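Below is a filled-in request sheet from our internal design queue. Each sheet records the structural input a requester submitted and the sequence that came back. We keep these sheets so that new team members can see what a complete request looks like end to end.

REQUESTER: design group, bay 2
PRIORITY: normal
MODE: inverse folding
CHAIN LENGTH: 743
BACKBONE (tokenized):
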């Protein structure tokens, strides 16, 4: 295996540390949620819950202590979910779900974990946690994000991590280890998405927090794990000597604290082995991997991703040792860990070091991109990076330093990011998107008070930022420190060859300085999201409108106010979601199952074509609603509807994953079906084969939808004419507000 690929694969599986601490902190989620859950119970005049959270946690600890988690933890957690739900203990159930996420992740059960992530987010929303800054919500967000990251659903994971950051600023103490867990997990996401510089910064902050909170950092597992994680990231940056020191320090902590029987010892052993492999010290690499495998087998069993990845790494280390003519002692697989080098050992001169130095000295090629004004005639290349990446670089290199220099007293109060209208905000922009309204840009969001004080001048300073940049072969963006004016003396404003359209100017501008409330009002008509108790207002908001208000990325939000406001629009009340699902079922039945075949039979191609349109729109919307907007976002407007649907369908966690492709097949065949005529098509078979195929797909989609409704316990009926499923779904709407009921 290529060394770089090996490092990435290893880092994705073994960088634990505070990552797992966030799961065992599920008790904190219970404590933070207790008051909310008890209030819910009091309001509903329910009897006290009988689920004992502490007893559950003690039992789970006992399973891990006797190293039987591989066979006992799964059934234990599943039964606990049932017990907590039957007892009506929402806080207890949230604790169980948090623990289950961690266990499923450790077992590589990512598909099953999807239900747990979704259920935890829905439960937290139902408990009213998502609008606050409770520890329970922070813990749940971290665990959900980490589960998504482990399943390589990076966009969703990063969004959840950023939400967690906003909550943690207000809910956790500066030395709380869950903050370290958040930094640690973010570092792994950055590592897995090829951003090692950011990963290193996050890990160093995690290590600082853990050491500050530790009674004895020299014998603390979490401190050791942070050293291991940092070593792996430093390897990807070819900082071998630093990587060696941190990996060896991790092992020293286990020895000092006599912690060698901890399951996490495998991380430190395998981490040091990985460093040795990179240094071409293959004998030490083999020894470390063998020790790690023994610990993994004892604690987790062989049927795990951890064991398989490490076994594969061991095999490659053994092959490399054999090719190098190095003999490795096969005895004592679980022998004395002291045989491994100590933290004080020095890195020998090795070919790997020389290679690293040569690589570091090389100069990657760059692509220069000049962002001329709308009327500029300068010939330039298309920008090779996405608009979001360009925006983040523009903020980091130009915007953030400008604010620190000119507005130091406000630097801790200004939010920045890119959200709203524009294909780059959805992450769907490409070379074709760059002919209009494209270029380095971001938004700055201020409170009303701060906007009154500095808003106008900040807008002037934002417009004056240099916008000429280059992109190297690795996709790194570099902005020039000094702006260059064109012949007219004006600063560049738009992208490469890009024109600024009227819809992105004036009151419709998409970047610059905004009041937080005004920004959301310009998109949705509301300064803040409608109240959870105002379903009529939610129902007036289009899904595409909500998508525009909640897409993109937030680069910085020191006060958390912007993120909290944005989160409010993500948190569609579940009664509203169910009401919309019912409406979509009705349209799928009416347009696809009833009117489409009738229109085709009577030869009314236009009516059939419009029926297909309504059927496709309703079905695509239903897919997003079933997958829960809080988790996957909202369906965007028509241009990006299928791009978003393909992305969602490709997710490991997707519900109804085949529907998007089926809808595209219906659309592809619609021309022949609606207008093909009797002798149309190959062999003169006419429209009949296309009509038959479309009708079959419509019915198959209905069957799949009913299966999903049953799985979510929204129906007990097997009726596939979806109009008849609506009463079952609406029975689950808790509110008596008539606007939510269609029947």
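RETURNED SEQUENCE:
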């Amino acid at each position: 295996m290529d060394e770089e690929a090996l490092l990435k694969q290893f880092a994705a599986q073994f960088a634990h540390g505070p990552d797992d601490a966030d799961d065992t902190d599920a008790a904190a989620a219970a404590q933070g949620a207790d008051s909310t859950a008890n209030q819910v119970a009091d309001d509903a005049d329910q009897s006290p819950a009988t689920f004992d959270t502490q007893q559950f946690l003690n039992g789970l600890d006992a399973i891990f202590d006797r190293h039987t988690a591989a066979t006992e933890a799964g059934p234990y957690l599943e039964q606990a979910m049932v017990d907590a739900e039957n007892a009506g203990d929402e806080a207890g159930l949230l604790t169980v779900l948090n623990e289950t996420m961690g266990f499923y992740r450790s077992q590589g059960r990512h598909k099953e974990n999807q239900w747990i992530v979704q259920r935890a987010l829905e439960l937290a929303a139902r408990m009213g946690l998502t609008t606050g800054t409770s520890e329970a919500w922070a813990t749940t967000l971290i665990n959900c994000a980490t589960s998504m990251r482990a399943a390589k659903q990076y966009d969703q994971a990063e969004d959840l991590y950023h939400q967690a950051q906003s909550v943690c600023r207000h809910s956790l103490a500066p030395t709380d280890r869950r903050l370290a867990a958040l930094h640690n997990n973010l570092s792994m996401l950055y590592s897995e998405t090829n951003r090692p510089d950011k990963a290193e910064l996050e890990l160093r902050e995690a290590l600082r927090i853990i050491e500050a909170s530790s009674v004895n950092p020299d014998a603390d597992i979490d401190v050791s794990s942070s050293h291991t994680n940092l070593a792996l990231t430093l390897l990807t940056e070819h900082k071998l000597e630093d990587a060696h020191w941190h990996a060896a320090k991790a092992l020293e902590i286990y020895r000092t604290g006599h912690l060698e029987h901890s399951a996490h010892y495998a991380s430190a052993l395998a981490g040091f082995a990985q460093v040795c492999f990179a240094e071409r010290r293959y004998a030490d690499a083999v020894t470390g991997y063998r020790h790690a495998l023994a610990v993994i087998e004892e604690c987790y069993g062989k049927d795990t991703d951890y064991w398989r990845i490490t076994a594969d790494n061991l095999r490659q280390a053994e092959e490399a040792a054999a090719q190098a003519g190095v003999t490795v002692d096969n005895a004592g697989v679980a022998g004395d860990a002291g045989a491994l080098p100590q933290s004080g050992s020095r890195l020998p001169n090795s070919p790997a070091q020389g290679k690293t130095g040569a690589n570091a000295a090389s100069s990657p090629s760059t692509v220069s991109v000049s962002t001329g004004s709308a009327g500029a005639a300068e010939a330039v290349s298309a920008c090779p990076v996405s608009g979001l990446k360009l925006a983040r670089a523009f903020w980091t290199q130009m915007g953030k330093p400008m604010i620190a220099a000119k507005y130091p007293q406000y630097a801790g109060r200004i939010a920045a990011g890119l959200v709203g209208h524009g294909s780059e905000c959805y992450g769907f922009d490409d070379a074709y998107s760059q002919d209009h309204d494209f270029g380095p840009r971001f938004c700055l969001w201020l409170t009303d008070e701060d906007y009154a004080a500095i808003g106008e001048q900040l807008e002037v300073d934002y417009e004056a930022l240099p916008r000429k940049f280059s992109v190297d072969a690795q996709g790194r963006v570099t902005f020039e420190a000094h702006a260059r004016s064109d012949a007219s003396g004006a600063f560049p404003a738009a992208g490469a060859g890009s024109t600024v359209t009227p819809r992105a100017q004036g009151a419709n501008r998409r970047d610059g300085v905004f009041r937080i409330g005004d920004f959301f009002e310009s998109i949705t008509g509301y300064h803040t999201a409608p109240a959870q108790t105002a379903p009529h207002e939610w129902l007036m908001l289009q899904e595409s409108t909500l998508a525009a208000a909640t897409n993109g990325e937030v680069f910085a939000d020191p006060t958390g106010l912007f993120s909290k406001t944005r989160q409010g629009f993500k948190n569609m009340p579940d009664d509203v979601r169910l009401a919309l699902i019912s409406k979509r079922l009705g349209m799928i039945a009416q347009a696809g199952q009833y009117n489409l075949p009738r229109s085709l039979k009577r030869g009314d191609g236009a009516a059939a074509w419009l029926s297909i349109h309504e059927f496709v729109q309703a079905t695509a919307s239903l897919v997003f609603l079933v997958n829960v907007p809080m988790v996957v976002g909202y369906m965007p407007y028509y241009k990006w509807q299928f791009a978003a649907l393909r992305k969602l369908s490709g997710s490991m966690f997707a519900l109804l994953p085949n529907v998007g492709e089926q809808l595209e097949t219906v659309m592809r065949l619609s021309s022949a079906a609606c207008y093909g005529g009797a002798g149309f098509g190959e062999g003169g078979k006419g429209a009949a084969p296309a009509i038959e195929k479309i009708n079959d797909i419509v019915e198959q989609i209905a069957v799949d939808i009913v299966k999903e409704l049953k799985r979510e316990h929204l129906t007990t009926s097997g009726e596939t004419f979806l109009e008849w499923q609506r009463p079952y779904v609406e029975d689950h709407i808790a509110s008596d507000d008539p606007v939510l009921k269609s029947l």
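SHEET NOTES:
- The chain has 31 helices and seven strands.
- Residues 1-48, 331-339, 341-381, 483-497 have pLDDT under 50 and may be disordered.
FILED BY: M.R.
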